[in-house]
């Protein structure tokens, strides 16, 4: 028996545990859907068809023997910045990359939970931009509107989940790269506390601003994947106290003080919240008020936080460029960012790292008055495919800031945030809003997101079939 594409992560795991289907059936179904949509959506860089089927057969033997782990036999995908043994990690770059020999820690933990990794999803070059396009793989498209981007840099993971190719996927978030594509594909996207999901074999990714996170159609599925992937390598520098994300889904959040923050944080160029996106965020604020929460407009004291982001981001790119086997194939904007990163990699980088504690302390005082911040995830709906691909570095930065000025401060702080769907604008383009909290606040944010989901039931909406042809196996 196969399951409908609407079956999520938890439902797939339950059906497998109760013998209603097999891992091979679910993996075959996922592979058929990937194959059917690859020409139109192009969500995957690598499809592990043979290996995934072998892993599914092994999972079925374990299930038959009575073994039970949280995701035993369930197909999932991971972004192509994560190491999967036997596969290359190109991270959106052009050229032939050698296969790696070991799983990264997050992938290792997914396997320990029983998941079958069906493939690695597309991402832009080194995850720099809010679109998923490039000469290495073409353009990944949005299942809701294929002429538009699903966002980035975890656009392949978002497209795969939104289209129902897999029930959930891992992405990474260095300036909103989980939350932005979740917003633009009508998904739940969890950016957890720094260190919650290991980035090993890198103790820190992009000087600590990038973390691994989860994308799913429901809060429960995103939380389940978060629990499965969470944990640390023994050499990780950031090791937050464990939380139970899935347990928080069923818990009432209580009556909360919520700050509605519509003003973009510090930006070097103008950024304006588009009225149609603002209207959707205000609707969510009104829904939270109806649920009994106290919602009032207030902005965290960000100050000049942007000055601490650029040295960390560009120094991180410089590190990646120094490691790549084919630097001549890199986008000119990548090479420009790496040059800036080398310039900023000394005193400015050290000052930026030191400033984090000061920023955490100052913005942390805001949470003495409020429990949660509600903010737009993006200022605009998803742009069209190709809109930013050929721009200069400066023009790309301007376009990114104009569209996505809201997400990156929480990467500097290292704190958790959750994107929730906020509805549709301009003829069906998805947009979202962020629930943001202080260190270790994933359970509260997840509980609040689940409360909203129970009212709004966003997971019941699907992309039109014209955009996402289903597979014969479905």
Automatic annotation (TrEMBL):
* Top-level taxon of the source organism: Bacteria
**A Pfam family matched in the record:** Amidase
InterPro entries recorded: Amidase, Amidase_CS, Amidase_dom, AS_sf
Task: Outline the extent of the Amidase domain.
Answer: 26-445
- The UniProt entry's coiled-coil ranges are none
Q: Family, per the entry?
A: Belongs to the amidase family.
* Classification via NCBIfam families: PRK06061.1
Entry-linked PANTHER family? GLUTAMYL-TRNA(GLN) AMIDOTRANSFERASE SUBUNIT A, MITOCHONDRIAL, TRANSAMIDASE
The entry's protein name is: Amidase
The species this protein was found in: Streptomyces longisporus
Which lineage ranks, top first, belong to the organism behind this chain?
Bacteria, Bacillati, Actinomycetota, Actinomycetes, Kitasatosporales
């Amino acid at each position: 028996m196969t399951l409908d594409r609407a079956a999520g992560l938890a439902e797939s795991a339950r059906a497998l545990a109760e013998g209603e289907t097999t891992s091979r059936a679910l993996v075959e179904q996922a592979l058929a859907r990937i194959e059917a949509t690859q020409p139109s959506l192009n969500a995957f860089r690598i499809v592990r068809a043979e290996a995934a089927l072998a892993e599914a057969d092994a999972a079925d033997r374990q299930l038959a023997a009575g073994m039970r782990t949280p995701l035993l036999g369930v197909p999932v995908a991971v972004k192509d910045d994560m190491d999967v043994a036997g596969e290359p990690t190109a991270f959106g770059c052009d050229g032939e990359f050698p296969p790696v020999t070991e799983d990264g820690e997050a992938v290792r933990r997914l396997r320990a939970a029983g998941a079958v990794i069906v493939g690695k999803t597309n991402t832009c070059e080194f995850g720099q931009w809010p679109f998923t396009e490039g000469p290495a793989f073409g353009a990944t498209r949005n299942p809701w509107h294929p002429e538009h981007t699903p966002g980035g840099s975890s656009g392949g993971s978002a497209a795969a989940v939104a289209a129902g190719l897999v029930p959930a996927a891992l992405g990474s978030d260095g300036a909103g790269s989980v939350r932005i594509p979740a917003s633009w594909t009508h998904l739940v996207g969890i950016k957890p506390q720094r260190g919650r999901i290991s980035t090993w074999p890198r103790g820190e990714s992009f000087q600590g601003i990038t973390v691994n996170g989860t994308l799913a159609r429901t809060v429960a599925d995103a939380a389940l994947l978060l629990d499965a992937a969470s944990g640390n390598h023994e050499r990780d520098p950031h090791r937050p106290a464990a939380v139970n994300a899935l347990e928080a889904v069923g818990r009432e959040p209580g009556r909360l003080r919520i700050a509605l923050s519509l003003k973009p944080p510090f930006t070097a160029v103008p950024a304006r919240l588009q009225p149609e996106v603002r209207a959707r965020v205000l609707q969510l604020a009104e829904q939270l008020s109806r649920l009994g929460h106290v919602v009032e407009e207030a902005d965290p004291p960000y100050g000049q936080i942007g000055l601490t982001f650029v040295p960390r981001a560009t120094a991180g790119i410089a590190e990646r460029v120094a490691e790549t086997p084919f630097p001549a194939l890199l986008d000119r904007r990548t090479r420009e960012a790496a040059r800036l990163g080398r310039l900023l990699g000394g005193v400015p980088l050290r000052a930026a790292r030191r400033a984090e504690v000061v920023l955490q302390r100052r913005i942390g005082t805001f949470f003495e008055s409020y429990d949660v911040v509600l903010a737009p995830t993006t200022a605009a709906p998803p742009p069209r495919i190709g809109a930013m691909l050929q721009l200069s570095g400066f023009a790309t930065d301007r376009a990114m800031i104009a569209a996505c000025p809201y997400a990156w401060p929480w990467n500097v702080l290292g704190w958790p945030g959750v994107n929730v769907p906020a509805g549709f604008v301009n003829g069906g383009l998805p947009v979202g809003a962020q629930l943001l909290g202080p260190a270790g606040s994933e359970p509260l944010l997840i509980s609040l997101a689940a409360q909203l989901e129970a009212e709004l039931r966003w997971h019941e909406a699907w992309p039109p079939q014209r955009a996402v042809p289903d597979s014969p196996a479905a």
